[in-house]
Amino acid sequence: MSLVKSKTNTNRLRNARILIVEDNSDHLVLITKAIQQSFTGVESVMVTDEHAAINYLRECVQTGVRLPQLILLDLYLPERQNGWNLLKMIKSHTPEISQIPVVIFSNSDHHEDITESYDLGVTSYVVKPINYDEWVDYFQTLKDYWWETVSLPDSRSTY
Amino acid sequence: MSLVKSKTNTNRLRNARILIVEDNSDHLVLITKAIQQSFTGVESVMVTDEHAAINYLRECVQTGVRLPQLILLDLYLPERQNGWNLLKMIKSHTPEISQIPVVIFSNSDHHEDITESYDLGVTSYVVKPINYDEWVDYFQTLKDYWWETVSLPDSRSTY
Known about the structure:
Structural class of chain A: alpha/beta
Keywords (chains A, B): Phosphoprotein
CATH topology of chain A: Rossmann fold
Protein name (chains A, B): Response regulator
Strand content of chain A: 15-25%
Oligomer: homodimer
Shape of chain A: globular
Largest interface: A-B, 38 and 38 residues
Radius of gyration of chain A: 15 Å
Distance between the termini of chain A: 19 Å
InterPro entries (chains A, B): CheY-like_superfamily, Sig_transdc_resp-reg_receiver, TCS_response_regulator
Strand order of the largest sheet of chain A: 2-1-3-4-5
CATH architecture of chain A: 3-Layer(aba) Sandwich
Number of domains of chain A: 1
Helix content of chain A: 40-55%
Pfam family, one (chains A, B): Response_reg
Order of helices and strands of chain A: HEHEHEHHEHEHH
Number of helices of chain A: 8
Domain Response regulatory (chains A, B): 17-143
């Protein structure tokens, strides 16, 4: 890994912002702790339902506040239809919102939940980890992939 | 990481198949070597243009051959319009093909190339690594994310 690349990554992480949509308070505690441990420097915005999520994204656009580069969406909020509705709203929005990668994370590993989510345009579907160490691994992988490897849609404006 | 999870991952990797669309023969050599080193067990299908790629995918469906779970697409084949045309064909196809995540990898880090690719439904956009070690890291990250963490659309039928 070259020095130049490492510098870029540091800059990327300094500007990392994730929107997390999760209605389960136990999971929110786990997620917050795991992010602090494995994803230092990321700013996480947490909301508990789909209306708050879409309102937050629209407000960012209206007020010029920097949008999150990644959205983590719990599918069952509390029904899967709530998660899918939000996914549809995001994917049918204007490009600055519709281009943000959405990762669904859910307790469900039902085939229909997975395939319907991909059909509606989710970037990837992750079954929620079971224990805390796996949550830490999960966020580490997320960071390695989305911030150390991928060029996100807003790569020019942020860095 | 639990034993159960490790077993699942081994099964996943045993069934891993990637379609690589790349017209640069030097890069194909690097990719093949890097995959052998960091992504043992994966079966990679390589084609050099968009027509061969879509024909391969259609043949899989028609003959019942297992589809790849991930498509790596070089954008400039040799023009970016070639890559985008293939992306459009994939994304407008029937679900078994349109749901396969497509990762664009390209030498270009131009903002327009990145945002237009996301607008056309690419899952993620990666600027090609510069040296061989970075290619190995790149495939390691790809494996960790897509095979160790994500549930891919075909997760029921393959495992």
